[in-house]
């Protein structure tokens, strides 16, 4: 009873608000109110994860299994707004929240998965320290909590690349060449891996990471991201 009183008092002094509409959140809500959560542009890529336009996009770049995205990205849409807050407004909890949502969607739709570990696309250490967290790692941890699959820190970004935002597909591929290495190969050797990132545009970054993992004897790599679509 005392803890409940303290929580109610803190909510009164420091109200929790929806990240999209600003409404006060009730106890059962996290990050987004129920109304805004219902308006998220959720995809059905998990229903055709072996054959969709995302898989076609990376054809010839890497040899992976399933390719999925939780949200459709649209400029000035809900997905862009929430991703911008996740990446640039010091809101790591949004990444974990979205990972939880996607994990529940996969389980509730009877999606079959046999992943042994989840690996997040890493930030360069300088950028991670400056931001304070890796948004893709937060998404991975949210998935992990629901799917009960461990997250392993197997990849390291050894080159701090320029932003991909205004680059062409070819420039993006060249920008991430020889950027990633596997630090602890034993953690992924012979494993089925779910590799996750925040956004997939051309697929250059995810493909580069997948190739490094496969070269280090991962058994299979599937890809998942928070959103896929146009440029942020």
UniProtKB/TrEMBL annotation:
Any single Pfam family the record assigns to this protein: Pribosyltran
Coiled-coil annotated residue ranges, if any: none
Top-rank taxon, per record: Bacteria
Record-annotated Phosphoribosyltransferase domain positions: 138-229
Family stated for the protein in its record: Belongs to the ComF/GntX family.
Record protein name field: ComF family protein
Organism of provenance: Algoriphagus zhangzhouensis
